[in-house]
């Protein structure tokens, strides 16, 4: 989904002077404006979808500065929980409606340079009452304006740098916070412009607009093992048999429209996450059907579990189709640790014959690729050989963990 995020507008600086008994002309005492609120994303393990994320997110406006050197409060930060595994990419803003060149020329003829300068000053400066026209004629104001323009130039350079280096985030650490849109800075109170020559500045600056970004949010499911199979291979039934997940199961050919994640609980309280990746079809790598929306979830699975319908006419061909689609979608994806789950092994008429052929194909594969391929025949419907499968999955995950630990040391 695409989201517009904008930091809150900074509060305006204050033009004020200290007024005390027996002091008719006190020093400047205007406070600075508060910064605008940030838009913050938090990686949450308790959220699994982006349904609660609004299309437009704006941080709170900063409070204006006050007299007696009281700075305004910062605007309220907008904190949005985002599911773990979400990839955030900054995209170009949506194209604006084109304006006819003749219309632009007419507008430019109507607005002269003086009017433009006046509008810019009105948007950038706060004046002491009745000094709206007097301040722009002052030398002190010109000096202050030059200083602010120099600061603005640095901000524009930073903005240009941000535009060139677009934001890219991968939310994989639980509870980690990311500021995706910074709130605008608050305006300066009039004490900021006090100099030896100008002891009573009668102007302050307005707050600055917050950072504005357009983001694309995409969830990529994180799991220890991903179940990959053609529609009606029995992935949902298998996930129900080995974990606490309860996806929809039907006796007719259909494919799950959303990935389900289940947790496999072991007797020693060890846990393992398994994802039911929606069914892959021929041409999924070309985005046929819901191809890419399915395949992107496989990228985060540490182990690939090919679920094959052993009762089909040619289950080894189904396995080839799955490998081919994965490899065409992402190079070397099939090189990850994997195993084959030969499901529906209880259908004795064809399953026994097909299993023998599958074991023969596995040996050929091992010789050609120098890669061990484990085939586990099961019946997900009746829960047969499930313990062997879950034990094997745990061994594979622990082996990967040990390898990753040794590489980091």
UniProtKB/TrEMBL annotation:
GO molecular function, one term: GTP binding
The keyword Nucleotide-binding appears for this protein: yes
Keywords: GTP-binding, Nucleotide-binding
CDD domains: Obg
Domain OBG-type G residues, every copy: 223-398
GO CC annotations on file: mitochondrion
Protein name from the UniProt record: 11733_t:CDS:1
Record-linked InterPro entries: G_OBG, GTP-bd, GTP-bd_Obg/CgtA, GTP1_OBG_dom, GTP1_OBG_dom_sf, OBG_GTPase, P-loop_NTPase
Keyword GTP-binding: yes
């Amino acid at each position: 989904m695409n989201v517009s995020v904008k930091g809150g507008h900074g509060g305006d600086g204050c033009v004020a002077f200290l007024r005390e008994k027996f002091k008719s002309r006190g020093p400047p005492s205007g406070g600075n404006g508060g910064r605008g609120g940030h838009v913050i994303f938090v990686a949450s393990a308790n959220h699994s979808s982006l349904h609660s994320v609004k299309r437009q997110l704006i941080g709170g406006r900063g409070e204006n500065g006050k007299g007696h050197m009281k700075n305004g409060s910062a605007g309220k930060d907008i904190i949005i929980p985002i599911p773990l595994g979400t990839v955030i990419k900054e995209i170009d803003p949506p194209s604006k409606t084109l304006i006819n060149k003749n219309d632009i020329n007419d507008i430019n003829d109507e607005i002269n340079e003086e009017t433009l300068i006046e509008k810019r000053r009105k948007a950038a400066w706060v004046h002491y009452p009745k000094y709206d026209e007097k301040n722009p004629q002052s030398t002190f104001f010109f000096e202050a304006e030059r200083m602010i323009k120099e600061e603005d130039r640095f901000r524009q350079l930073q903005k240009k740098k941000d535009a060139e280096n677009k934001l890219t985030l991968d939310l994989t650490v639980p509870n980690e916070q990311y500021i995706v849109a910074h709130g605008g800075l608050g305006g300066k109170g009039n004490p900021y412009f006090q100099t030896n020559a100008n002891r009573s500045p009668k102007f302050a600056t307005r707050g600055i607009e917050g950072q504005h970004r357009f983001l694309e949010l995409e969830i990529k499911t994180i799991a220890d093992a991903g179940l990959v199979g053609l529609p009606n291979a029995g992935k949902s039934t298998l996930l129900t048999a080995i974990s606490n997940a309860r996806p929809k199961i039907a006796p007719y050919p259909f494919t799950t429209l959303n990935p389900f994640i289940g947790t496999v609980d072991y007797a020693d309280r060890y846990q393992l996450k398994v994802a039911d990746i929606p069914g892959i079809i021929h041409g999924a790598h070309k985005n046929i059907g819901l191809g890419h929306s399915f395949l992107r979830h496989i990228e985060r699975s540490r182990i690939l579990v090919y679920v094959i319908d052993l009762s089909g006419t040619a289950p080894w061909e189904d396995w080839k189709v799955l490998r081919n689609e994965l490899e065409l979608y992402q190079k070397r994806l099939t090189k990850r640790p994997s195993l084959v789950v030969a499901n529906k092994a209880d259908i004795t008429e064809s399953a026994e014959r097909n299993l023998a052929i599958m074991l023969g194909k596995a040996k050929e594969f091992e010789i050609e690729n120098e890669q061990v391929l484990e085939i586990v025949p099961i019946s997900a419907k009746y829960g047969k050989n499930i313990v062997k499968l879950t034990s094997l999955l745990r061994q594979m995950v622990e082996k990967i963990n040990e390898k990753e630990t040794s590489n980091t040391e």
